[in-house]
Structures are given as structure tokens and as C-alpha cells.
Amino acid sequence: MNTFLTIVVTFFAGMGAGLGTGFAGLSAAAVISPVLITFLDMEPYMAVGIALASDVLASAVSAYTYHKHKNLDVRNGLIMMASVLVFTVVGSYFASLVPSTTMGNFSVLMTFLLGVKFIVRPVMTTKEAMEGVSAKKRAIQSVVCGSMIGMICGFVGAGGGMMMLLILTSVLGYELKTAVGTSVFIMAFTALTGSVSHFMIGGAPDWFVFGLCVVFTLIWARIAAVFANKAKPETLNRATGVVLVILGIVVMGFKLFA
After folding, report:
1. Which of 227, 257, 219, 256 is CA-nearest to residue 24?
2. Using CA atoms, how far apart are residues 168 and 31, in angstroms rounded to an integer?
3. Is 196 exposed, middle or buried (0-12, 13-18, 19+ CB in 10 A)?
4. pLDDT tens digits along 80-113
């Protein structure tokens, strides 16, 4: 494998994944895996494992940055995470019973449409409005929505971060920064679970590619998270929308021409 090509490919894959994670809580798997498969001819199962592993540190560092700026709902994030993990398993079981090969494009299309949504109709909910919801109601909403996200992710096989951002902002009425912070917090744990299971089943990854993807994704996620937490709501909505639209178009292009 050409070393220079590997560095270039992983740099841009990590940049796209890191920006998506830091700005929108998007799973790195949505970007890194199609890039590794297309340009490095990597086996798909291993590419997803490396992408999930890259997501762990990137999401954790992003979550820490959002938490430091008080833009993370830890309590309801933990409740939602438990529901997501349980119902991802349930969704995976049902997916094994139903042919769903065409559903893999669902998350990519939704990434693009969600980006357009943030540009056209930005999320302008305030923290004061968020805090107006009772703790009991918010906890119940977190269980129900986490179950829904888990079922979709388990059945479709992707789109966890994108679905969480959509539901946190549109259904639960979260302010955008808190929605992204809570999303990356959950994704750090789900990505860790997914990557460990991938490597246990599929064996050790290509450590050179693994290391480059982890480092590049981490760097760009940190940059994006710092910018996002300092940005005004209008600016963050536009930046998030542009990042999602570009990632959606690029990944759709990889899937179309691969």
C-alpha cells in the first residue's frame, strides 16, 4: 500500500469525520468507512471498525469540550444511551430477518437533508426554553426517543449521530449546542462498544491506517468543537448545515462511483 496515498486519504477522511463529529455529533463511520473502502480498497467490515474506533476519542474530546462550556445534558444523555444500546440490538435482530441492502443509503440522504434543514430553518431554541420541561417528562422522552434511534440504527446499520441530532433538536426541543454535546457524549460509548466488537470478530486492524484515522479525526473534532462552542447560534446553524450538506454530497458520490 502506497504510504503517501494512505496518509492523504486518511487525512481527508479524518478531517471530514472530525468536522462532522465536532459540529454535528455525526458518527465518523458515515465518512471514514466509505473513504477507506473506495480509495484504499479496504474490506468493509474492517473499515467500519476503524471508523468506529476513530469516533471514540473524537466524540469523547468533543463531549468534554461541550461539557466545559455547559452544553451537555449528562443525566438524560445516559438515559438515552441505555435505550439506544438496548434497542440497537433489537433492531439488528429484525434487520437479520428482512433484506435491507438498499437502506444503507438512508443515513447519507438524511445527512444531506438535515444539513439543508439547519441552513433553511435554523434551531434557535434557548436553554431557558429547554429548562422549562420537567425532569420527569424529559427522562420519559429520552427513553422513548433513544429506543426509536436504537431501532433505526440497528435496522439500517448507520446514522446514529445524525438521528440523535435530528430528534434532540426537532422532537425534544434541545438548543443546538446542547444537542450536539449530548449526541457526542452518547456516541463515544456506542462507538467504543461497536469498535471493540468489530475487532473481536474481525481481528486486528491495519494499525497504520488505524492510528492515522484516530489522530486526524481527533484533531479536527477538537477544532470543530472549540469553534462551535464559541460561535453564535446563527453561525453555528449555518456552519453545521454546510458541513452536513458537503459530507452528504461527498459520501453519496463515493457510494455512487465506488
Report:
1. 227
2. 22
3. middle
4. 999 988 887 787 677 566 554 444 555 667 777 7
Write out pLDDT tens, residues 18-50. Answer: 998 998 888 777 788 888 888 888 888 788 889
Question: Residue 130's CB: how many other CB atoms inside 10 A?
Answer: 16
DSSP 80-144: HHHHHHHHHHHHHHHHTTS--GGGGGHHHHHHHHHHHHHHHS-----HHHHTTS-HHHHHHHHHH
With a CB cutoff of 8 Å and minimum separation 6, the contacts of 176 are 122, 123, 125, 169, 233, 236, 237, 240
For 146, residues 6+ apart whose C-beta sits below 8 A from its C-beta are: 79, 80, 81, 82, 83, 84, 87
pLDDT value of residue 116: 86
Residue with cell 492523504: 8
Which DSSP letter does residue 41 get?
-
d(CA 159, CA 153): 6
C-alpha cell at 137: 417528562
Instruction: Report pTM.
Output: 0.83
